[in-house]
Amino acid sequence: MRTGQSSFVSWSWLILHALLVLLVTEGNSDRKITIENRDEEHLLLPTHDHDHLSLSSNRNQMDPSLNVFFNPVDLRLGKTMPIYFSKRDPSVSPKLLPKQEADSIPFSTSNLPYLLEFFSFPPDSPQAKAIEYTLTQCDLEPIKGESKFCATSLESMVEFATALFGSGTQLKVLTTSPLSNSATLLQNYIVLETPNEILAPRMIACHTMPYPYAVFYCHSQESQNKLYQVLLGGENGERIHAAAVCHMDTSQWDRSHVSFQVLGSEPGTSPVCHFFPSDNLVWVPLPA
To answer: Distance between CA atoms of 278 and 111, rounded to whole angstroms?
Structure first.
């Protein structure tokens, strides 16, 4: 087993422990919850959802955050490609609530007026639009062959994974882990080692959503996906253990999904691969 692979696997539950330390609120959080401090133009765009971003006719002018998509042939030793990795500041990021507290707060578009009053956000504010967006996405029916759930606590996330993989299944959580500090969001990275495929019959990807407290949009598709751990080296010297997935069947995807514009493909014609940002989690079952 390579050093990068060993570190990636053995740190799985350490990551969960760190999340508890960094994300769980301390003391009474009632009405003291704030939405993550992002630029307003990106406030409504969770890191996993690029459906509504438009691609300029000049590829050099496309949104930098779209530099996460790639083709399977790009995942090879020595390949260089521009990649955007968002930086997470735990001091200003939304906090994970304990399950009991999270369950006591309504979470549905039907409760939007109450929630805006609860969080003290004006109806026409960017924060209100972000809340409405997240609730709408979480209320949508899953696509064919997909299981989805919006987790408002770590406990509910684990319960969803256990229900999907089976009671008693041992779980492993993967994420993208920077090995050095860098303020650079977009730069050229080179694949430093042969990518390691994480073999699992199924995976659950959990993406952060814009909300006053931490909410993860978790989903799993029955179609084939390939999960990888990739050691990357940035042109500025930064090193990253990155989690990446290749969706092998995109036939059920919306034709307007921006990944098809970025990669020049169409639903069902070729796989779509992408890297995960560091605040996203990927759950897989450990072999029995």
So the answer is: 31
